[in-house]
Target: Peptide/nickel transport system permease protein
Amino acid sequence: MGDTVSETRQAPRRPGFLARLVRQKVPFVALLFVLMMVLVAIFAPLISPYDPNAQDLANAFQGPNGEHWLGTDQVGRDNLSRVIAGTRLSMVAMLQAISISIVIGVPLGMSAGYIGGRWERFISRANDVAFALPAILVVFGIVAVTGVSLSHAMIGLGLVFSTRYIALGRAMVKAARHEPYVEAAQVLGVRSWGVIARHITPNILRPLVVQTTVLLGAIILIEAELSYLGLAASASDPSWGRMLHDSQAYFARQPFLPFPAGLAITLLVIAVNLAGDGVADAIIKRPDSGAVTTGKRRKRPPVLVSERADRPVADGPAPVLEVEDLVVAFPAADGGETVVVDGVDLRVAPGETLGLAGESGSGKSLTAWAVMGLVPEPGRIVRGSVKVAGQQLIGRSDRELSDIRGRDVGMVFQDPATALDPAMTVGRQVMEPLRRHLGMTRAQAKARAQDLLGLVGVPDPAGRMGDYPHQFSGGMAQRVVIARALACNPKLLLADEPTTALDVTVQAQVLDLLIDLQDEFGMGIVLVTHDLGVVADMCDTVSVMYAGQIVERGDCADVLKHPEHPYTAALLASSPVNDAPTGQRLATIPGRVPPPWEWSSACRFQERCSHAVDRCGTGGIALVGDSRAVRCVRTGELDLAEKVRTP
Ligand code: SF4
Model:
């Protein structure tokens, strides 16, 4: 197992939610004020000095005094008692309206964002129309039909405000669904409801809290307005709005009359908003990340399973991965499709490591994602065969694929910082596939997760189970990702540039760890990388990809020492070697990988190839050979080995 010394540096422990909340003095005081008002509402009948509706005409229009701290109104009712009773009414009103809007809006918005397609379009259009309606007008309409009542008004307000949650929920889930940690959960085989509940919802809590506090403030004000207009609380209800309404007629006689209710409304609205900001800021922010989408929910044309899938296999152990004639395409501007992975074949035996190498844009990562059945949207697998441990994956339903992902295939991602859910402890993230696929109890999964964390070199695994991803260094977080990927002892591990995002001092340790774990678990590995040095260190076989095609494949040592395709030779020449003379500049490959819409059936490397001849421009250049194969018309004519040094 690799040396972990340089990885044991831990990110400083971040204070917990409560500590972060308490640190924000103003929002924390505001939250205490809101909590105090909640207590006032609950215990209103007990703490109210007088009956809020008891009239005493002899003591009407009093200002603040020893007996009536906030004075009395036009019929001698105690203002303090009415404000206290009004607190209860306002809280109940807020609760009614906000709970209706959340119960309706959040599920509709989240389902629209997650499912997409027609359901999303229908919800969005309907919501756009409802969103445009002024809240007061809608409540007017509902009260006109159902009769004046605070509950009716709040139901109307709840319906109106549900549109805000639909819009927010849809937008947030749509964005969160593209996050790598959500992709990672899907790769682990977590079902849709589990992804939404455990990985998306905690990460969109922050904007939901902000939205809720803004709306709570608005509800208080609108309730006061409606009561003021006589459309919510009845004349006898001691609502704050009704108190304001009644005070306007007697303002000249007692100028203090509007103050108790007005002050209560103002303070509660400000406190709710400040407290909401504080709570939202105390919720862990997730790091920004690049977007990768999946097309699992879209209706697609049927995928053709390659006829070659049923051909007899060569002798030797049954492969853990067999990919035949895999073709992936994206919609083109002209209405057709552009092929981005073009007839790829891969084969990995148990305990074997295959390197999938090439520059950016070669299609290697897309090939790995296609193996998992997670082609980025709006792409699709056009045809081919993908067998994992003998099971054909092409044509399977999402549910069947989710049973296989995480159990038979694990995946390690490029950037552990985005592959781990920032709002979930690492212990729970490692336990998740164990509970989902192996049916372990919580206690069993916890014990196994601790074992796995120890196995991948996380110091004090029991103590770190409750830590969050941000408390781990990059290398240590990648160890957690590896532990999670191997939790169910998969037969195949896909590692997509697993060291690219890591510190150079940690890269070798993570690669050593993968080798050690392969010895222990015996899984086959597909290592996607642009680094031929990593291929040389790790792999038994290598497939070099260029412009969506495999251009050379074979035994790793043989290909790297005796490349037969000019692109492989050029990649090797541009790779750093340990014994290179000081000051020697690395060779570069001129030009760039052509974009898919420029690909032809002729050699796609032709424009960058220093060995190109006229024949290279003719169509139909095939990959010739079996275990050692090359896609070049000049195979056998060129001596490419002498120009390269193996990294
Ligand atoms: S086919 Fe021609 S252009 Fe293509 S790699 Fe071979 S020699 Fe170069």
